Amino acid sequence: MTLPEDGLPSSGSGDTYESVGPRRSLDRFLAEYGIREEQVRDRIKVHTSEPWMSGATPEEEYLVHESLLRSHGEFPCAGDNEALAFCEEIAEEMVRAFGIAHGEAVARVNRQWSEPGRSGGVPRIWIVGLDLVYHQTPDDWAGDIYYGKDSHWWRLPPP
What is the pTM of this model? Predict the structure, then answer.
């Protein structure tokens, strides 16, 4: 692939954008990746949601083109250091709680989020910025990933 003068991949013909959340999350993302906004302005979009309450300020959500993202560590789905740490916590919890090897725990996390999607792209899901996966704790994700979705693993006797 030929990179433009700024050394960053172009957005190409794909139009896949990933949410990083509010402005502070975009700023953190840009700082972590070592890029300036003016270099990639054409690969950042802003989505403004209507306020939930009358008179409230509309919320802005920043999205970055997938060409800006790069995987972190053992987890292709981890699009920033926070996501890498989160995935590592999930894997460590599976090792601790279920007595499986670290490599198996990493493979299970990657099967959950990093396997190819319908388009064949890897990862299927990017975890970056203020992501929805953070609605559950690493302990909860460890159980869901180990036992499977809708397994009601918390009702099972401890391993």
Answer: 0.80
